[in-house]
Amino acid sequence: FNKSQKQYKVVGTAQGNYTALQQKIMAAAKSRNLPTIAQTTYTTVPDYVKNGFISPLDQYMLKGDDKMSSSDLKDIYPAFLSSSKYQGKYYSVPFSKSTRILFYNEALMKKYNIAKPTSWEDIKKDADKLKADGIAAIGFDKSFDMEFEGLARQAGNPLVSADPLKANLDSKKTLTAANFIMDMVNSGEAKTAGEDIYGDKNFTAGKTLFYAGSSAGITNMKQNAPKDFKWGTMPLPSYKGKKATELAGNDIVLFKSASSDKQKGAWAFMKYLLSEKETSKWAQLTGYVPLRKSAVKSADFKKYLSANPTSQAAVDSLGFGFQSTAFIGFSEYRNDLLNAVDAMLTKHEKPDQALKTLQGQTETIIKTNK
């Protein structure tokens, strides 16, 4: 960006991880020393708006000389654009995004004569062929919260609905999804990563046939899987006849404290990152997904996919991607959600009890922040 024009200069500062980034932003806000822009998960936007940290982007994004055209906006995948909006205004732009995908072990599929699953129900059936040899059909990360949210959506409701804001954590449909996963875990058909945090170790060690993980983990898999380990990727299968995959990653926000000139420069940089050429380039260099449909269709990206076929599944998943409903107090809710999953896994709490507790906690968060 700095080489592409002479008017603005972006100076980047890196933080180690999401948590460190969040702590840095909150500390900078207290000391009134915020940068012009920052990466953040879109779920922090409601809290930032409540605290008066960030400016809506509409005045730059939808108006003025440097706005985005309607064809630009239509070109960005709808799930990315809709999660940038809060209370009818754009407060962020998408940047580093990943999808949940299914990794598969080619040798085990061949050995046990197992085809690529089209549904989660198929995976459950495949488990019978593997049980005697102590192999789980599917591996999850330490927490299966993202797969759980996907299955709940496929069963018929989001964990938290957006309009009006409503918790559905103890609904019949949510419970169906939780029971489906926990039945597989309890029977040994599914395996969680435990202290490993991510399920790739169990997967590359041949302890699970499939692994439901982030497309952002493909680069890591290429680097760390044994050289003779043959694996592939595919979109997550359907459940109850519907497809869904949770999208994750960072957006970019603009802080209110920045001067007018810096805000204009920040928007120029955001728009540059959203361009077809740059989102394709960023995806190829990082393993994240392109934000635009035109970038996915570009000759350059098609060439990249033919050389890196394991990246195809993430792109194929974008059409049915979703993002969690963001609301004030989301980080507290997410901690409660992770605790509920942990209670089911390690404390052997029944799903209906764990989700009843989570429903109460979430209702309190929503009510407190009205």
UniProtKB/TrEMBL annotation:
Keyword Signal found: yes
PANTHER family, per database record: ARABINOSE-BINDING PROTEIN-RELATED, SN-GLYCEROL-3-PHOSPHATE-BINDING PERIPLASMIC PROTEIN UGPB
Organism: Lacticaseibacillus paracasei subsp. paracasei CNCM I-4270
Highest taxon in the source lineage: Bacteria
Family per similarity comment: Belongs to the bacterial solute-binding protein 1 family.
Pfam families: SBP_bac_8
GO CC terms: cell envelope
Protein's name in the database: Sugar ABC transporter periplasmic protein
Annotated Gene3D superfamilies: Periplasmic binding protein-like II
Protein's UniProt keywords contain Iron-sulfur: no
Keyword terms, alphabetized: Signal, Transport
Cited InterPro entries: Bact_solute-bd_prot1 (IPR050490), SBP (IPR006059)
SUPFAM superfamilies named in the record: Periplasmic binding protein-like II
Principal subcellular localization: other
Compartmental location: Cell envelope
